[in-house]
Amino acid sequence: MKDIWNEYKILISFTLLYLIGAAYFYGTRGNLEFIAYLGVTIFIGLVILSTAHKSGLDHLVLWMLSIWGLLHMMGGLVPVGDTVLYGWRIIPLMDRGGDFFILKMDQVIHFYGFMTAAMVMHQLIAKRSIPSIHPGMLIFFATMGSLGLSAVNEIIEFLAYVNLTQTGVGDLYNMGLDLIFNGLGAFAGAFWQQKRFKRVA
User: 101: which strand partners?
Assistant: First the structure.
């Protein structure tokens, strides 16, 4: 554990700082949805850090994961106009009423998050795959792995939606658009990581 602290102390300190702030904010307001997300974020963070030396994830991806956590915590915390960061409607590229709106910050965060997840998947697969694996297969499996994680995320959001009296999840349009941006981000992350992988190899 000491070796992990010595190597990642800046990253760990940064992550702990925003997690403590988010825990205080959401705890004092009784926001059960984000308290649950906070618990999941802490659990995932501990798993990633405790296996960092074995997984071989590079520092860029670990920082991207931490920033993803920060964006997730800020999503329901930072006020933007009459809504919060997640609900911020950035550019009206498409507006069909209700939650069918592109482009929202929620969609940007989904894109970024599952781009990062695809990079993680790529690194995990590439580290353990045979040298002759086709680059297209690496991209495909990293994308599919990220999409699998995105499905888990949407299941958690759905369970929050049906079990909690008030959530910021949104309707089925929101879920569908989330999945689309998850997919776009997953492919972008897998493709980008393949480019990085080729430069290192």
Answer: 95
- What pTM value is reported for the model? 0.86
Residues near 44 by beta carbon (within 8 Å), at least 6 away in sequence = none
By the 10 Å C-beta count (0-12 exposed, 13-18 middle, 19+ buried), 101 is classed as buried
Helix intervals (H) in 30-134: 32-50, 52-55, 59-75, 105-128
Least Cα distance to 46 among 83, 4, 99, 7 occurs for: 4
Coil vs helix vs strand at 105: helix
End-to-end CA distance of the chain: 30
Amino acid at 39: G
Distance CA 21, CA 180 (A): 31
Question: pLDDT tens digit string along 77-103?
Answer: 888 888 889 889 999 999 888 778 999
